[in-house]
Write a structure and sequence with these properties.
Order of helices and strands: HHHHHHHHH
Strand content: under 5%
Number of domains: 2
Shape: globular
Number of helices: 9
Largest sheet: none
Structural class: mainly alpha
Number of strands: 0
Radius of gyration: 21 Å
Length: 261
């Protein structure tokens, strides 16, 4: 059996084990999108393996579709994690706050998108450039998300025993390795060293899965409440956004009445 096949089986086996922990310990109730994302990873791996070995001529097209679907799941995971971080004050937030969280991640992604370019891809086929762009954009988003949670952990009253930071840490580690490899690939030609780096990415993913397995097998720390100062700040931001939205709606209504008059 080749090393590629060993890593493939190790990744799928570890993914299945993590899914079993998420379901068995009822963690999936808090993180249904993250759980679905890992299940999707198993399905996409099977689809990629089948395409590569039996329909190799269509592999790039299929891989691009799988990557875009994978990225949509990752977007959902980031929204779910950030929404879970706000759990202590969610009952006090406006109903549209979840959409605001999603919009914030979209805005950050839009800022990252034009920056997610690397040397050596300018003259690549459009499909390759799109694949690289999508992959790198979400890798940067995952890294930024991890840095945000880790850097603001005291303000957000979360620690390494909280599921949100545990999930973000696994995603951040894997993303750092994969982003470094993809940037290195930009100046490489295909060969043994090129493929070795891809295998390092696979190893980093297995390590993240192993880390999640250890974390999810232990009891989660009881979630702490935000400090009064942080609660006031977040609620004030939500109130300001609500006031701005109402003012814009009233202004639009006034203009519409003026035109009718």
């Amino acid at each position: 059996m080749t090393l590629d096949n060993i890593l493939w089986l190790a990744g799928d086996g570890a993914t299945a084990a993590v899914v079993a922990l998420l379901v068995g310990r009822h963690i999936f109730r808090t993180f249904p999108i993250f759980t679905s994302y890992l299940v999707w990873s198993l399905i996409s791996d099977a689809a990629a393996f089948t395409t590569q070995h039996f329909y190799s001529a269509n592999f790039l097209k299929v891989f691009l579709v799988l990557l875009i679907t994978d990225s949509l799941f990752q977007f959902g995971v980031l929204v779910e994690l950030l929404w879970s971080v706000l759990r202590p004050i969610r009952a006090s937030l406006p109903r549209w706050s979840l959409f605001a969280v999603a919009a914030l991640i979209v805005i950050v992604g839009a800022i990252v998108w034009p920056l997610a370019t690397g040397p050596g891809h300018v003259n690549s086929p459009l499909a390759n450039r799109l694949l690289f762009h999508v992959y790198e954009t979400f890798a940067i988003l995952r890294i930024l998300f991890f840095l945000l949670l880790a850097g603001c952990s005291q303000l957000l009253s979360i620690g390494w025993r909280d599921r949100e930071l545990q999930i973000a840490t696994g995603l951040g580690f894997y993303s750092l390795v994969s982003l470094a490899v993809w940037m290195n690939h930009a100046g490489q030609t295909y060969g043994p060293q090129y493929h070795l780096l891809d295998q390092i990415v696979a190893v980093s993913y297995v390590c993240s899965l192993a880390y999640w397995g250890v974390c999810f097998a232990t009891k989660e720390a009881e979630r702490r409440e935000f400090t009064p100062q942080m609660q006031s700040l977040l609620l004030a931001m939500a109130g300001t956004a609500r006031s701005t939205r109402i003012a814009l709606a009233e202004s639009a209504a006034d203009k519409s009445r003026d035109r009718r008059d």
